[in-house]
Amino acid sequence: MPPQLVPIEAKEQKIGQIFSDLYAFEIPAYQRPYAWELEQASDLLGDLLDSMEKKDDNGGVYFLGSIVLIKEPNDPLAKVIDGQQRLTTLTILLSALRDLTTNPEKRFDRGHYIFQKANPDRGTEDRFRLLLRPRDRAFFHKTIQEVGATDSLPDIEALEGSQYRIAANARYLREQLELLQESKRDELVAYLIQRCYLVAVSVPTAEAARRIFTVLNARGLDLTPTDILKASLLDRVSASAERGLSDRWESIENEFDRDGMVELFGHIRMMYEREKPRLALEAGFLKFVSPFSGTPEKFVSDVLEPIAAAFGLLKENETLKQSFGAEAAKAVRSLSRIDNKDWVPPALLALWMRKPNQKSEIAAFLVRLERLAYFLFVTRTGINQRIARFAKIMNEFDSEAPTNSPSLNLTDSEQLEFIEELDGDIYKKARVCKPVLQRLDEALSSGGASYDDLVSIEHVLPQTVDPESEWATLFPSEIVRDEWTHRLSNLVFLTHSINTKASNWDFSKKKLQYFGSKNGSSPFLITQEVLQTESWTKEHLEKRQIRLLEKLSEVWDLNFSKFTSLDGFREGPAADTQSGFTNSAAIEEKRRAIVKALCAREGALLVKNGSALFSSIDGSVKAACTISKRYASGSPYWYGYAPKWDNYLSGTKRSFIVLGCMDRNKAYAIPHDRIAKLLPHLNRSGERHWHLTLEENGSGQIELAVPKSGSRIGLGEFELKLE
Predict the structure, then answer these.
(1) What is the C-alpha separation between 221 and 71, in angstroms, rounded?
(2) How much is the pTM?
(3) What is the Cα–Cα distance from 233 to 265, expressed in whole angstroms?
(4) How far lies 530's CA from each of 33, 435, 521, 522, in Å?
(5) Backbone angles phi, psi at 142, to 5 degrees
(6) Per-residue exposure over 395-419, b if at least 16 CB sit within 10 Å of its own CB, e if not
(7) CA 84 to CA 68: how far, in whole Å?
(8) Cα–Cα distance between 523 and 546 in angstroms, integer?
(9) Helices 239-273 and 281-288: angle between axes, nearest 10 degrees
(10) If you average pLDDT over residues 198-225, what whole number do you get?
(11) Which helix (H) or strand (E) holds 181?
(12) What gap in Å lies between CA 344 and CA 335, rounded to an integer?
């Protein structure tokens, strides 16, 4: 008797149907926790908004992929085998949209996408439409699904694991939605419910569901997209030409293997499409790569083979060095270490379009491409922004030589953000730290090091200090330890695994017996320098940090001296020794004049509470006073506004951020409540400074730039005249 076939039901459903009485979703206890981070949540919202704005170009619909369910026909109970991340994030998004709705009737109606109200006529009971794993279920109800829950989200620092990611994504999505006008939020709800689709694949058994999941996600050795494209191409050639064209195709596939061939075709598609792909590779390739629809021989000869040769060149560093020089080879080797390949299409396009006399131009392009890619990598820029930036570069190839592409340049704001991220707790950026340290070590050693033996990254000052160790004496302040433990200057490479017992050894023993090899040396210059250091102190860390940042700034052509001259960029003795820093005595003289003028205007004596912070005796008046020199290029005045300054000024009615200019006899005392409202619309370096930039209008008046809204605010009413 033949085996019975398991019925499979696959339906393309609108999101309004997904979050309806048709389905009662439940995440089984054995499923992994919610894992999406800010990058994925940001990509989802960005894709939805982008697709909504371009609905006339994409047919007015957006496909969100598929979900696999254990579900009986005519029974809404649906256990989720694949699709938990999307369903959970969509629930968070819909909950935030519900809670931001001001019209009570609309808010009530939108609650139906989150909660199913009991209805005896329909045989339904009170139930949230999505039940997470039992461990997270109550938290998700209280934090997200209950009406008004996203109005007061919990402190994410007190959470961990999946609950941290749920709350962090909810906070991010809520903040981004708040920036939209309510009419735009209403448009988003309508687009999401009516025009966005999921394919719901339903089978009645767990075994069948897992089999479908495997087919959809692993595919084994089933047809790849490039297999399908190959068949399409060969269908259009004569029998006599088929064998030769097939052999040429397969020779490329043999060089890069099946996965590499799919990657190559993805890059070729991006070279033509120049937007984040929204179609499967085989469909998108047919739509956007116009030469593929032409003569097959011409496509292989003029497109596939030369681009494949360029792709191979990017993988052969020694050949690349012979063709374009050592610096270009270093740049590409460094690029290969980052966690995305979005830089590859513009690199392939430049190599494909190059002329025989453009070797130096291509070398310069690859070096500048590395700088841009590492800026986007270190600052953890989202995939949509990365793709858009690289697409602009490719668009500019149409009218410019590759090295003249304006989008390759980093603006002053981007350079500052890059430097600040490199200056921060780089070790905590798990995917970023190792590639940056390798690039730094290469630069220090003039590229002679090999990283085949690299095993781990270790801290000199240990992450956890034993109170009885020498480290507790060298670094008695926990605040100082927290400030320096995870920064560049405190990190070294090891050729062996980390030994936690050795972390608190005295410095002299640790460097010789733990950091060094059997002969007392290290193949890595970043580690050798530590072996040659007599003592490890805060002062040494400060000087080493600046020297390492200067080396990376040299590698990536960053104007380090310009941005480290910003008032408050770094405090401490090391700053005074660096060339290019604004004279600290001149800054303090200007600051005294500004504070004196503010005291006179406010009728209060302000005393110093920090390098830039001031307060009246009774605390009723507070100020953060920061100074900028005038810059010859870009915005004339630059400031970094630190979160600790914002916290200091908060809660005091008469509090001001005071912006001084070294070449002007005026300053601008902006009330804190005015600045606080602008912070979401200013550029920011991660969790560090907000960027404040002052511009001059045509009349020479000073205005504060608000980059995310594209506006400026005149500062005449806040003017403070100095004696």
Answers:
(1) 28
(2) 0.60
(3) 14
(4) 41, 20, 10, 10
(5) -70, -40
(6) ebbeeebbbebebbebebbbbbbbb
(7) 9
(8) 23
(9) 90
(10) 63
(11) none
(12) 9
The Cα–Cα gap between 562 and 638 comes to 10
Can you name the residues that pair with 323 across neighbouring β-strands? Answer: none
Rg (CA), the chain: 29
Rounded to whole angstroms, the Cα distance separating 672 from 434 reads 39
Distance CA(84)–CA(211), nearest Å, equals 17
Give alpha helix (H) positions in 100-224.
104-110, 134-140, 161-178, 182-195, 206-217
H or E stretch including 693?
Answer: strand 690-696
How far is it, in rounded angstroms, from Cα 366 to Cα 373? 10
> Containing H/E element for 149?
none
pLDDT at 498: 63
Instruction: Please name the residue that has the structure tokens 């005074």.
Output: 576
The region, left, alpha or beta by phi > 0 then psi within -120 to 50, assigned to residue 684 is beta
Element (H, E) at 568: none
d(CA 530, CA 532): 5
Are 109 and 128 in contact, with CB atoms under 8 Å apart? no
What are the b/e assignments for 456-494, b being 16+ CB within 10 Å? Answer: ebbbbbbeebeeeebbeebbeeeeebeebbbbbbbbbbb
Task: Give the pairing of strands 654-661 and 621-628.
Answer: parallel
Say which range, 209-218, 416-425, 523-532, 624-633, has the weakest mean pLDDT: 209-218
**Amino acid letter at 161?**
G
* Cβ neighbourhood burial of 268 (10 Å; 0-12, 13-18, 19+): buried
**DSSP 8-state code for residue 8:** -
The per-residue pLDDT for range 450-505, each reduced to its tens digit, is 666 566 888 999 888 889 888 999 999 888 888 899 999 999 888 767 666 777 78
Structure tokens at 717: 């009413």
Amino acid found at 465: V
Q: State the burial class of residue 127 (Cβ atoms within 10 Å of its Cβ: 0-12, 13-18, 19+).
A: middle
- Report which DSSP code applies to 119: B
Q: What is the dihedral of CA 294, 297, 301, 305, to 10 degrees?
A: 90
Residue 581 near residue 560 (C-beta atoms within 8 A):
no
For 27, the 3-state DSSP assignment is coil
Closest CA to 353 of 318, 307, 388: 307
Q: Rounded to whole angstroms, how far apart are CA atoms 199 and 264?
A: 28
**If 0-12 CB within 10 Å is exposed, 13-18 middle and 19+ buried, where does residue 666 land?**
middle
**Alpha-helix residue ranges (DSSP H) falling in 274-325:** 281-288, 296-299, 305-315, 317-324
Beta strand residue intervals within 450-605, DSSP E: 456-459, 491-494
For residue range 53-92, what is the model confidence (pLDDT) as tens digits? 887 766 778 999 888 888 988 899 999 988 899 999 999 9
* Cβ–Cβ < 8 Å for 689, 641: yes
**Scanning the structure block, which residue is given the tokens 């909810």?**
170
pLDDT surpasses 70 at 219: no
